[in-house]
Amino acid sequence: MNTLRLEIINLHAPYRVKQREDKPQDYYFRTDYGVEYDICLEEDFSIVPSGAYALDITNREHKRSPLDPKFRMTLIAIVEEFFERNNDVMLYVTETGDEKQSFRDRLFIRWFNTYEHHDLYYIQTAEGRGCKRLLKNLKTRFHLFLTDVYLLG
User: Which residues pair with 54 in a beta bridge?
Assistant: First the structure.
C-alpha cells in the first residue's frame, strides 16, 4: 500500500489525523467528545491474493459516541486519500462483538449515500449467511471490475 499523505487528509478532515510511527498503515484521531478512533488499513487476502485492504475502525476505549458529522467527514478524507494513492479494493467489515453490526452497516451506507462522490465507487453489503455468497460471487467476478471499480464494504 502506498502511504497516505497526512497533509492532504488533514486539509479535508475536521479532526486532526495522525499516523502511528510503529505502523504506517494505522491512523488515529480524537473527536470533540473525547473518543479516540484507530483507523487501520491492513492487507486482506480473503478475496484476492493481493490488492485488497480491510478498513478497520476501532473506538479505542469503547466510549459512547454520539452521531458526529465530523467523524464521517474525517473518515471520508482518509478513504478518499486511500483511493487517490492506491488502485486497490477496500473491504469494510463491521465489528460483531457487541451485536451492533446492523446499525453500523446502515450508518456506513447512509454516510456513503450522502457522500457527494459516491458515484465513483462500487459498494456491496451482506449480512450473516449472505456474506459467504457475496465473497464467492466477488471472487468469481473480481477480475471484471478490479481496475475500474472500488469496493467499500
Answer: 42, 91
pLDDT band at 41 (very low <50, low <70, confident <90, very high): confident
- The closest of 57, 70, 68 to 28, measured between CA atoms, is 57
Q: What are 62's three cell numbers?
A: 469503547
On whether the pTM is more than 0.85, the answer is no
Torsion of CA 124, 126, 130, 135, to 10 degrees: 50
Tell me the residue type at 15.
Y
Cell of 45: 487476502
Spatial separation of the C-alpha atoms in residues 151 and 123, rounded to whole Å: 5
Residue 88: exposure state from Cβ atoms within 10 A (0-12, 13-18, ≥19): buried
Mean pLDDT across the chain: 75
Three-class SS state of 57: strand
